[in-house]
Amino acid sequence: MKRFAALLATGAALSALAVTGATQASAQTTGGPSGPSTKNCVDGWPGIVNLRLCASVTDNQVVLSGYATPASVSWTPQKVSFNLTGAVVGGATIGSDSPYVLIPVGGIPVGNVSGTAPCGSNVQATFSVTQWGWPPSTATLTVPVTC
Description:
Blueprint: H1 2-26, E1 37-43, E2 49-58, E3 61-70, E4 78-88, E5 93-97, E6 100-103, E7 108-116, E8 122-129, E9 138-144
Antiparallel strand pairs: 1-2, 2-3, 3-7, 4-5, 4-6, 4-8, 8-9
């Protein structure tokens, strides 16, 4: 039993490190609009692969990105199907991305959707594992577009 608890603790620590690394890496800016900018991230329900969904809003420009980290320390790198979508609440779709990505032990960025949304609107994004035969794991985020 102690060995199982230690294994779970190790897995949680590795997942936390991967998510922290993803957050730090995505916090770097690469230029673009110079207006007010906000960034929000949310974690999905734990599953075989842990999900993190982030939305970055600068003026009316919205960038959505996902990050996937294996939940187990015994993970064997494998390709996994995902779906990332974003839309203005009550309005147009911003875009979608359905990548089939090789997930390494340390995790990896998955999907990228960008577009514009009207000032004063809200954008809702969903990032999910769509691997056949796996339990669902989804992260959903709603962010305001304040220009």
